[in-house]
Design a protein that fits this description.
Layout (H helix, E strand, L loop, with lengths): L10 E4 L5 H12 L3 E6 L2 H11 L3 E5 L5 H15 L4 E4 L14 H29 L1 E6 L12 H21 L4 E8 L21 H12 L9 E4 L8
Helix pairs in contact: 1-6, 3-4, 4-5
Keywords: Oxidoreductase
GO molecular function: oxidoreductase activity
Family: Belongs to the short-chain dehydrogenases/reductases (SDR) family.
Amino acid sequence: MTSATQNEGRSALVTGGSKGIGYAVAQALAGAGYSVTITSRQEAEIQEAAGTLGERVRGVVCDVRDAGAVQRAVDGHVQAFGGLDVLFVNAGVGHFANIEDMTLEQWRDVIDINLSGAFYTIKAGIPALKRRGGYIFTLSSLAGRNPFAGGAAYNASKFGLNGLSEVLTLDLRQHGIKVTQIMPGSVATHFGGHTPSEADAWKIQPEDIAQLTLDLLDMPERTLPSRIEVRPSQPPRK
């Protein structure tokens, strides 16, 4: 495994980094020696998270629905740390209802954050990643392959994110940039208003995705695991 000393001078930007998977990934990257920027729409949350994560981590308020704000966040990261090596595209939201009942605002919110926000983030980060090679992780979902009732917006956003990720691999592989889609099933996070508890012990934990991210970064340069599906190993019996 790459040591923290070997990662000195490397940096990562994690969207949606104030809690859950984004927070765990930022914590793991900082522990591995990366300098990290985390983003969130909520100023109080992002500053608290950055303060807890330590001196290697800076927090930036950024709404990924705003392409200009995303560009400023990436530019600020590059200015602060001299470059960009890892981009973890994690910001996401879910609204669930059948199509007849889903509002236009709910549809737009999910697509604008989960899909357009990912595009804005990646587009802003590519020039810096090209300068020294790097890695893009897109946090998708098993819902990007498996539709479910009431999941019109969420399924569409994750199916789209998977397609975007696959095209990115083709567009960027000759520039020394790897792209991996991470597609988890049930994760113990605050997603959808859920409050993690002991009852979630069977679920994937945010730190499991963080460990997977470090493991992928340690893969030989010649090898690209382009799509990783992650499931709880022992879900409750139905």
